[in-house]
Amino acid sequence: MLNLVEMAQLKRPVRQEDIDDLGKTTQQLLLEAIDAGRLDEARRLAEYTIAEGKSLHDLFCDWIWDMQTQVARRFGEEALGEVLRASQQSWMLKRTWKGFLALGVEQRMQLTMEMMRAHHGGPRQDGSTELIDAGDHYVMRFDPCGSGGRMRRGDPVDGTPSRLGPPYNFGVTQAAHDWSWGKTGVPYYCTHCAMNEILPMEWGGHPLWVTDYDPDASKPCQWRFYKTAEAIPAHYYQRVGRSKPAPGEGRY
After folding, report:
1. Do 176 and 182 meet the contact criterion of CB atoms below 8 Å apart?
2. What is the domain count for the chain?
3. CA gap 16, 108 in Å, rounded
4. Nearest residue to 237 (alpha-carbon basis) of 251, 217, 229
């Protein structure tokens, strides 16, 4: 039986059923409540799934940025750039790139929206994302995004501070790199978004999407999905040390 009780230490409800029931998924309990017509219980469970998924998600994001900081401080930022490339160019981004090439831009955008809804962005960290049709491209606006934006600002739901200060003190680029959009002061975590642009440029000439990174952490982060490769402005290539291909070149 569901026993969703406020835990004082966390200042939010936590499931506290008997040991035989704790292993049941929240989704299973939610479906059972709907089927039985217990709609108030179903609503509470639906809201709980956000907090339940957020805790582990946030822990791993914090951990990644901390590990990147350790790599840069122990071995130098060039080593971090090598790690970014080595990890992203193998199974992870290569799989995404190949899959996205088989889709139209609307489908790419729809699939990415699904992923970002699971990324716990927005002021309530519930995955809310603003989507705008800007004519020649779509804009996904995260305010904040559920990883770099949340960590830079501090967590608006958990009440924890920015990861740029104590007790975290996670690092930012001390030199300008192509994998930091030619900027210093970019959080190491956020640099994977620049590498997400660089590698598709190398493989097929064009990025699948581009990131509008703002050094002001209070500003939203944006991804732009251009409807044609020709519509992608040249400066998105130049900032990562590349040149825009001539019309008709590359794969998009």
Report:
1. yes
2. 1
3. 40
4. 229
Point out the residues of the chain with pLDDT beneath 70: none
Instruction: Give the structural domain span for 137.
Output: 76-238
Q: Report d(CA 213, CA 223) in Å as an integer.
A: 9
41 domain residue, yes or no = no
pLDDT value of position 196: 97
User: Left if phi > 0, otherwise alpha if psi is -120 to 50, otherwise beta: which for 213?
Assistant: beta
Kindly state whether residue 208 falls inside one of the protein's structural domains. Answer: yes
pTM value is: 0.92
| Assigned domain for 89 exists | yes
Tell me whether residue 26 is in a domain.
Answer: no
116, 119, 160, 231 from 110: Cα distances, Å: 10, 14, 32, 20
Torsion of CA 217, 189, 49, 31, to 10 degrees: 130
Residue pLDDT, tens place only, 94-142: 999 999 999 999 999 999 999 999 999 999 999 999 999 999 999 999 9
